[in-house]
Amino acid sequence: MMMNRIRPVVTAVLVAAILTGCATLPAGGRNNPEREIFIQAMMAGAAVGAGVGAAAGYAVAGKGRRATGALVGGLAGAVAGAIIGRMTAEAQVRTLHDYQMDNRRLAALLQTAQQRNQAVAQYNQQLEREIAGLKSKDKAMRGQIASAKLKEARQNRQAVQRAMADRRELAGKLAAPQRAQYEQTLNALQHEDQRLEQSITRLTEMEQPVVGGAGSDRRRS
After folding, report:
1. Running DSSP on this structure, what letter comes out for residue 136?
2. For residues 127 and 199, is the Cβ–Cβ distance under 8 A?
3. Which of 58, 83, 175, 201 has the most CB atoms in a 10 Å sphere around its CB?
């Protein structure tokens, strides 16, 4: 019986509170999904506050003034509930901003890692072409060029391995979905490291002097 009398009062107060709250949304809150967060939180807070306030006002007011008591209590409760809902929405929006910032940071990390992988892949491709071209050189020239290329390749591999160690450390700090994405760049870099290791092995073989060459010269003399 009491709730039937209170319900229209609560509805009127709730609508007024929501309209007032929506009109005071900050500029950033007018864009989805932030606007939806504010509206839903304020509606929920105002609804609960209006119901509790109206019931309390109806119970406290004397006979003949209960409708007024319900109206005043409902208004006060709706305003308080809307304020609490707004505070909750602000916290939720901050969380959303943090999440979006984390996504942007991850996107930047992924882009940097992919660019590094591409640079290493291009270096490997160029080095493999140069190694193939050494076959046409005489042994002395081939050994000299291989020695110079070997020094450069070893330095580059050290840099690649440092990058791999950094990525492993960073991947361990990321949440599971982000870690899975970032580890893909680590796996790709490990593949390029293996290619570089194979090139270093081939250059090392080319750099070594021919075993038994001096003995062969002595036999010919």
Report:
1. G
2. yes
3. 58
Other CB atoms within 10 A of residue 138 CB: 7
Q: Is 159 exposed, middle or buried (0-12, 13-18, 19+ CB in 10 A)?
A: exposed
In order of 94, 112, 151, the CA distances from 108 in angstroms are 21, 6, 32
Long-range own/partner contacts, residues 26-32 (CB < 8 A, 24 or more apart): 28/93, 29/89, 29/93
Among 166, 164, 182, smallest CA distance to 174 is for 182
pLDDT category at 137 given cuts 50, 70, 90 is confident
Is the predicted pLDDT of residue 114 greater than 90, yes or no? yes
DSSP 61: S
The Cα–Cα gap between 217 and 221 comes to 6
CA nearest neighbour of 23 among 42, 44, 10, 50: 42
Instruction: Identify the residue whose tokens are 């209590």.
Output: 73
Instruction: Enter the pTM of the model.
Output: 0.54
The count of residues in the chain is 221
